[in-house]
Amino acid sequence: MNWINNVVRPKIRSFLEKRETPENLWIKCPETGEMVFHRDLEANQWVVPNSNFHMRITSKKRLEYFFDNGEFTKIETPEVAIDPLKFRDQRKYVDRLKDAKAKTELDDSVLVATGKVNGYDMTTAVQDFAFMGGSLGMAAGEAIIRGIEVALEKKTPFVMFAASGGARMQEGILSLMQLPRTTVAVQMLREAGLPYIVVLTNPTTGGVTASYAMLGDVQIAEPNALIGFAGQRVIEQTIREKLPEGFQRSEYLRDHGMIDMVVHRHDMKETISKLCNLLLKRETLLPELNEEPVEAEVSTEVAVTS
Asked: CATH number of 56-279: 1.10.1040.10, 3.40.1160.10, 3.90.226.10, 3.90.79.10?
């Protein structure tokens, strides 16, 4: 027996070879520290079962959960100039864009799609926070406007899932121009009498909050989502007062009239569907009751007994 070949070498290989073990088998809840198996978390739409903490999800996952059978059609959006200001900080803006596109497999921070929600057509736009913090640039602005145009063409409600850190600084004034442009597009929906529903997810801040994210016919938010324009520390330093606990969270904003309702992710689809039916004055589909009742036949024959 050659013990070097049969024993020593396999042992050395086992130390040197990289073990292929799946990463992120367990995910830690940011709120309670609870460890949750990733498959259980995914099956629960990325809501931690015990703490009810709503974790961030990708735009594609959001659309799968929202549309019937997870089926939707992506809307192609207009191309825009890349890095028109030739911006550079620690890195070139074009390099940041390449990394974000490779990481998320998206063209930009907003994904627009159409599909069926409980049998009715719906147009939806979703901001993906993983793409440069969901920042609003020219491409994102064009995507939202194109989505609204499709909603106008198809005469469908338009649902906006917002998640953003604000305007994209690398595009400067060109980014800020998207705020009034998207606002005008929302007004077109209003004039056409089509519902515009906004769902504020964690976080929704900056210029996005100052524009289309606060213009919905109905303002919905996920539980404990961070929603605001400026950060809490900046506000406290400006007004020189201590702000209430959780004053920029969904529940606080609902209690003080800034948003209409806080809805669990599991109930989001049904809630939005009912709201759209109400706003469009759709009749609830009920079974037909036009058939005349069948009366029981009564025998008039008299039994003759011998």
From this structure: 3.90.226.10
